[in-house]
Design brief:
The protein is an alpha+beta fold. 21% of the residues lie in helices and 28% in strands. The chain folds into two domains: 164 residues, Rossmann fold (3-Layer(aba) Sandwich), CATH 3.40.50; 126 residues, Immunoglobulin-like (Sandwich). The chain is built from seven helices and 15 strands.
């Protein structure tokens, strides 16, 4: 028996921002965008868009207004009051803007007014007087003169992630976010039925020299047979009542082969029920050191195999 434990103000450069994102990082609730003190003077955020895209753009405007102040966000619905000249106010805001966000869509690309706005902003950006960032709102391509610039892809990443990226650009912070899923060179797949199945453990990128694995299975030893395919000799054995750190108790079968696992040479393990009971596979662990084992993520259907963290005590069989 063994146990498991689990274990924005930027001036001087017209260059565009490289965009990374973290899905779900920021809620559309405007109060979730924490305000950071701006030390380089007043910012003016210009949101260039077509009126047909207001349902999307207004959500961005509200979030930015909550984070940086409504007076710092030029959004026509609140920045142009009755009796004021529309062209005059837009011209004034374009002259003052430090951050220009062009919401690219089929609607805005066909708008002469929006074209005048982003073309003037592009001229300012080339002089280092503002930062211009395109925000892709549908499947439209950017204007050719902007095609080499990286953009915020609201259409692909969603509204929440796009708002987070816009706020980071304004604050002058990196938009990169580390991946939410831990990297693993290994993965596994399962084919067959609940009575007769094959586990294939794959190395996706490079050689894994240690080919010692534990198949977690919630069956008694007499209910199944397990053997690696075309691997002779190999070392293995059944371990009963494995208590996991998340409170689950299951069984495990050690499989250790005398070669590494490479992308063209995965390890295949055959599991067959010997009676009427169905096979109840729980996941796969990989030995990383003498006393450390890590879960191998499934290539598909992660909900079926929740993962079991690390193993602190090596199996004895």
């Amino acid at each position: 028996m063994f146990s498991l434990c689990f274990a924005f103000v930027l001036r001087g450069s017209p260059a565009r921002y490289a965009i990374g994102f973290a899905p779900g990082r920021v809620s559309l609730n405007p109060t979730t965008l924490a305000v950071k003190q701006i030390s380089h003077g007043t910012i003016v955020i210009f949101l260039s868009h077509n009126h047909l895209d207001k349902p999307i753009v207004e959500q961005v405007a509200l979030s930015l207004a909550a984070a940086f102040g409504q007076s710092q966000v030029f959004y026509d619905s609140w920045s142009i009051q009755p009796g004021e000249g529309i062209i005059d106010r837009m011209s004034e805001a374009l002259g003052q803007c430090t951050h220009f966000f062009f919401f690219v869509s089929a609607n805005s690309l066909n708008s002469r007014m929006v074209s005048l706005e982003w073309q003037n902003a592009l001229l300012k950006a080339t002089k280092g007087q503002c930062r211009l960032v395109a925000i892709r709102c549908d499947g439209s391509e950017l204007p050719p003169i902007m095609a080499q610039s990286l953009y915020i892809d609201l259409y692909s990443v969603g509204l929440d992630a796009a708002v987070a990226q816009i706020a980071d650009v304004i604050r002058g912070e990196s938009t990169y976010r580390p991946p939410t899923q831990q990297f693993s060179n290994l993965c596994f797949t399962v084919t067959g039925t609940d009575k007769d199945l094959t586990i294939e453990i794959k190395a996706k990128f490079y050689l894994e020299p240690i080919a010692n694995f534990i198949v977690l299975i919630d069956n008694a030893a007499a209910e199944f047979e397990l053997k690696p395919i075309n691997e002779d000799p190999y070392r293995g054995g059944f371990n009963e009542n494995v208590k996991l750190d998340n409170g689950i108790t299951t069984n495990g079968f050690l499989v250790a082969v005398f070669r590494g696992v490479t992308p063209p040479m995965p390890l295949r393990i055959h599991v067959k029920a010997t009676g009427s009971a169905l096979l109840r596979l729980g996941g796969v662990l990989h030995q990383k050191s003498h006393e450390r084992w890590e879960s191998v993520p499934p290539e598909v259907n992660p909900l079926r195999f929740p993962g079991f963290g690390t193993l602190s005590t090596p199996p004895v069989k």
